[in-house]
Structures are given as structure tokens and as C-alpha cells.
Request: fold
Amino acid sequence: MKLFRYGLLFTVFILRFCNAASLFRAFPKIKDTMPHLQLCNLPTPIKRLTQLEQHLAQYGKLQAGTEFFVKNDNKTTDSFGGNKPRKLEGPLGEAHAKGCEHIITEGSTGSNFGCATAVLAKNLGFKSCTLIYSPQINTKYLQRNALWATQAEAQFLFCKDRAERKERCDAAAAEAQKPGSKTYFIPSGASNPLGTIGFVNAAFELKEQIDAGILPSPDEIIITFGSAGSVTGLLLGLKAAGLPCHVITTCAVNDPDKTAFQDIANLYRSTNDLLQTYDPSFPCCELTPADVTVDWDHYHGEYAKIGQGDAEAIALLNETEGIKTDGTYAGKAVSTLIDYVPKLAGKKVLLWNTFCSGDPAHIETLRSDYQTLLAPGWLPYFDGTIPLQPLDQGV
Reply:
């Protein structure tokens, strides 16, 4: 037990004294009051998509003065890229501060967030990570994540549907709240106020890059919407940092009642309130419907389903810029960018690439032995019972 605690404390010491987050530079008091572990290599790089621009201009689809940029959050960490590590810095920091040893979180079976949590929790020295999963359509990254999370010694609870998953998660969250519990529960995507602050920081990071002349202030930012934490934190951070950017968020999940804006607004307020408890000088910001456009055209009736336009956009970005994305989240933002080209004429547009990159060579070597390595709940995704969708382009 002592060795576990000392090892984790040493890791925390190293992480805490790396370069400070942009939000902490703007509001130093937050760094002293907010539970936090620095997991990410920040800032993530930005580049102009000149080859994509030229391709679109060649076919008369891009008007003069329109400029496209990408922020490559696929490079957030050396172990598991994407937007997930940003949102885990607060929750895993709080888990450490509370002396917790066991991490529990949830998602669909392909969950990038679940895999990221398992990998990073193991790297930090937490004793275990349990992932509560419900079924989803098959993808190549699902298979990668199954192997990777297994290699990170994650435990899996497979549920028959989302209703059962919610029931199990409610029980796990209640267990984590008991006095003296060594268990810490993180909701889907870490899209609670503490996790959302990771993307408030991302907006301040973007401001520093703009101030440094790396790119002009974007008129539009395009990012996907799943559990709402990334887009919500970004919107709040943009307001607090004084950046007048409009956000287009592509919905990757079913929302039959079209409550996405209200979901964002509720999380926005609670995150703003939490930041003000860490530092009362953090501004009180107002979100309006004019700040964000929720795009529903790229949700194709089932979570993780890839549409023809998504597949073509993913291939185009890879062919022109050498940038890979997936069809569940980041690729839908690329598809939105391409479809919105006529509406973006003359604008500076930033594509926020949340692609969860990482495909260690040794993971693929495990694939041939999946029957003995993986828990039984994974086998239908590997033996053809649940086939890969035809438009999947892998990771």
C-alpha cells in the first residue's frame, strides 16, 4: 500500500511541475485550489489546411478569402491522444487528492473515453479501472480499444443496453460517495463540471496561440458533440477569454427531444459556478443560442454509424493533409466542415480534431490471440457475429 501511494505521489509531483495550463496562467488561483493532474502535452499544434483548401478551390467549392485550420488534439498525450485526456486531468486529480485507488467509468463498448481512462489510470498507478459498457455498432477503433484496455488491465461489466448501464452506474456512483470509499466514479466522457474545465483551458490555450500569431482569431470553430463536455468547456472558455468565435457542433448521439442546447447550457452554468468557487475573479459568462449551432445532419440514426459523406470527408482529409479521423466523432466534424463550405465563404474556420489516436504496434500483435486474451463480451466484435460496418476506414 505504501509503495503504491509513494509511487503515485512521485508521478503527481513530476506532472504538477511541468508547464502550467493556459487557464492557470490567466487565473493562478485556480491552480492552487482545483484538483488537477497535468496529463497533456500542451499546447496541441495548429496548422493551416492548405492542401484541402487547394483541392476544394480546384473544383470551385471554396471562395477566395476562406481559410481552414486544424487544431490537432490527437496529440494531447504520447500514450492516448484526443480530447479525452484534457477532460481527465480534473477527475483523476480529484481521485488522487481523495486517496482513491479504484476508478470506474462508463461508455459504449467502443468508448475512447473508457479506454483512455484505463490507460491513463494504469500509467498513474491506480490499482484498477472498471468500465461499464453497453453495446454499439462495430468499428475498427472499438477492437483497438478492447485490446488496449485489456492490456491496461481494465475490468469490464457488459450491459445489455443503456438502461442497464445507467442502473449499474448509479450504483457505482453511490458506492463512490460512501465515507472512506477508495472508489472514484467518472461519468461518461468526464462531462461533469470538473472534467469540462479541461476544455475551458483549451480555449485559453487557443487564445495564447492566436496572440502568438499562429493563426488569426477564427470566425467559426467546428467540433463534435457527444457527452457535451468538450463543446461546453470550449464555449465557456471562449467567452471568458474574450474570443468572439461562433461554434458549430456536430451531434454524434441521438437526441430525440433536441435538448442539446439546454444540456450544454446547464453544464455551462454549473462549470462556470465551479470555476468561481476556485477563483471568485473568474467571470460570470452568459451563453446564448447565437453562440452555437447544433448540427443534426451527420447523426445517421445509430451511435457510431458512419454515413457515406462522413467516409468521403475522412478520406479527403487524409489524402490531402495526411490527417486521420474516425467516423464516430472527429470524422463527423470533418464532414460538417465540407458540407458547410458554402456557408463559410470568406471566413477563418478552425476544425477541432478530437480524434483519439494511438495504435501501439504491440496491440495489433494481440489480435490473433483475441479468443484467449479478451473477456467473452468482446468476442462477437471479433468473430464476425457483429461485423464491421462497410464504410469504416480503421484507425
